[in-house]
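Design a sequence for this backbone.
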């Protein structure tokens, strides 16, 4: 949801900024822009559309300015256009600002600034920031930024460049991520680590309310009260290559193929060698675990779908009632949450605004909050009482894949942990599940090696306007994710339905040749699913069934069958989603869609 970068040092800033923006383009690609100081002028270059348009605009020019800022946009206020692109400037061209977030009270501020004679050129909320700086500036950028912050409400990570103080960059964050990269004689800023990795591994991860002042040789950080903060250096452990395509055509395909390793890494160190117990390193005492009388899982999008699986699994294993709720709904519906509720928030990025707001609401109500996230030291990780990291590595494609399967693993781990501590389920049952968990990585690899059936299906059905995904129990939970994946990147309408619910209305949409993807991995519901498949076949739908190895009879009833290796019935989601990810991927490629950067979307949604 917008990416921002900053550079100050001895090198020409433009190539560094553009390279950084390239790494952050997954956060938004409606427009891109940079600002730098050259010849005692603030120069701004921006262009609607992807970064490549900006690159074309810059091509053939030599820029020697050594301090600058950059932005790649996911539009919120104001349509994608050259004028709405960041950086934004004040009337006289002394300040340039890049911003990720939303200034919620920008309208009254804008009116006030207009009454003071300021002239606006864009429809954005961000532009008020540049004019506020202009309004307040009396020779000290840091003091002016502090004054400005007191006027604004909302979420922001921003970097400011001031013509009168060309030797420093000022940055501040509130509810949107911002990271300082520490160099030798140069320093950097970025919304996310991949933009910094080719320059440095040493970083400061700014916390809410913190402000950073960068010169080429120093970085000072202040808290929201203006007090200096001693930041610990966070040394990035993963390799820059992990955030590259590594020979794959798209990040999404690479990330789908990284799932065996991601699954293994997420389990690593958390299962006892005898498969009898799970160690999650949580702060909870056994008594506290026993005190819980309810679980709430809240998240958005794919992470929410992982939560739907979590609900099934935790209710079955931990014997507690579990509610799962979309984060943007949770906080506004007065949920029944108190000190005896365990609230689990799930977020790949750890920065999703709705999820963060739900987390805060849960804490306000006294719940114990456990975060499942993929990003170390993200906002969600910092604010939760406990964190369970998914070790999926950086996920760059907008469509979430390896984050989802590792979130599923986290759901199993939590369920098993609770079952053990609360004496639910026999040891034999828990050992059986844990031993199967260990085998998932290898079984995922088998699925990845056998993608042929999917490609044939795609070739035959790539022009369909609409599809349906059906399943029961855990298969329904996975159907939700399969449908989201398909619509998100191939733009084919896809709807997930609890198979038994079809006949209550939606069956009216099933006509000759409509593809129905039927998930049939739950042995206990096999016969019921078969009846539902027959119902859609009777309306001449084309059925692609997804089942565990050995279900030979299915082929007699449906048009195509995809098999996944057999596993414990509770664990099938980790495997059954993989063919659905591949289906969405190949459909998108066949239809000429932009797989990694689907229209209207962004990876990290830091606005509500
Ligand atoms: O970073 P988060 O897990 O909090 O993101 C939540 C959703 O925005 C995300 O899962 C989204 O639905 C994916 N693009 C779907 O592929």
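Sequence:
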């Amino acid at each position: 949801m917008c990416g921002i970068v900053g550079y100050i040092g001895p090198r020409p800033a433009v190539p560094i900024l553009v390279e950084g923006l390239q790494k952050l383009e997954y956060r938004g690609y409606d427009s891109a822009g940079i600002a730098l100081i050259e010849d005692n002028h603030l120069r701004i270059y921006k262009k609607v559309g992807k970064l490549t348009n900006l690159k074309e605009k810059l091509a053939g020019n030599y820029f020697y300015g050594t301090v600058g800022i950059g932005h790649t946009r996911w539009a919120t206020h104001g349509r994608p256009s050259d004028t709405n692109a960041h950086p934004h400037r004040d009337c006289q061209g002394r300040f340039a600002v890049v911003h990720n977030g939303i200034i919620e009270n920008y309208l009254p501020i804008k009116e006030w600034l207009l009454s003071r004679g300021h002239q606006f050129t864009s429809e954005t909320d961000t532009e008020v920031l540049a004019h506020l700086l202009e309004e307040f500036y009396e020779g000290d950028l840091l003091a002016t930024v502090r004054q400005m912050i007191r006027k604004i409400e909302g979420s922001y990570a921003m970097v400011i460049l001031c013509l009168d103080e060309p030797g420093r960059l000022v940055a501040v964050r509130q509810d949107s991520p911002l990271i300082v990269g520490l160099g030798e004689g140069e320093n950097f800023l970025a919304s996310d680590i991949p933009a910094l990795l080719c320059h440095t591994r040493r970083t400061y991860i700014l916390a809410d309310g913190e402000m950073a002042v960068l010169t080429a040789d120093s970085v000072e950080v202040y808290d929201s009260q203006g007090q200096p903060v001693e930041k610990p250096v966070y040394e990035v452990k993963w390799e820059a290559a992990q955030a590259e395509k590594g020979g794959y055509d798209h990040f999404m395909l690479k990330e789908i193929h990284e799932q065996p390793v991601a699954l293994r890494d997420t389990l690593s160190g958390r299962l006892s060698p005898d498969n009898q117990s799970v160690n999650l390193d949580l702060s909870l005492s056994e008594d506290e675990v026993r005190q819980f009388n309810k679980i709430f899982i809240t998240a958005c999008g794919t992470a929410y779908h992982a939560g739907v699986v979590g609900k099934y699994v935790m209710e079955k294993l931990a014997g507690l009632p579990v509610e799962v709720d979309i984060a943007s709904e949770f906080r506004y519906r007065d949920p029944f949450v108190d000190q005896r509720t365990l609230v689990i928030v799930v977020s790949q990025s750890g920065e999703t605004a709705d999820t963060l707001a739900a987390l805060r609401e849960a804490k306000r109500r006294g719940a114990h909050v456990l975060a499942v996230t993929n990003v170390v030291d993200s906002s969600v990780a910092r604010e939760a009482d406990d964190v369970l990291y998914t070790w999926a590595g950086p996920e760059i494609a907008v469509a979430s894949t390896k984050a989802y399967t590792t979130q599923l693993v986290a759901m199993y781990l939590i369920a098993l942990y609770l079952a053990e501590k609360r004496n639910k389920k026999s040891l034999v049952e828990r050992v059986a599940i844990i031993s199967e968990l260990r085998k998932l990585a290898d079984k995922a690899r088998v699925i990845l090696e056998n993608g042929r059936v999917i490609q044939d299906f795609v070739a035959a059905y790539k022009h369909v306007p609409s599809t349906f995904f059906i399943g029961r129990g855990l298969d329904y939970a996975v159907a939700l994710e399969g449908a989201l994946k398909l619509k998100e990147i191939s733009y084919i309408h896809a709807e997930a339905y609890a198979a038994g619910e079809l006949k209550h209305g939606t069956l009216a949409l099933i006509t000759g040749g409509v593809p129905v993807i039927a998930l049939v991995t739950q042995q206990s519901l096999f016969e019921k699913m078969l009846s539902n498949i027959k119902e859609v076949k009777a309306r001449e739908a084309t059925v692609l069934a997804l089942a565990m190895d050995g279900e030979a009879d299915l082929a007699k009833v449906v048009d195509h069958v995809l098999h996944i290796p057999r596993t414990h019935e509770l664990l099938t989601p980790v495997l059954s989603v993989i063919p659905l990810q591949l289906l969405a991927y190949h459909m998108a490629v066949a239809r000429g869609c932009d797989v990694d950067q689907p229209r209207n979307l962004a990876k990290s949604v830091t606005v509500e």
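Residues 427-449 form the longest helix (23 residues).
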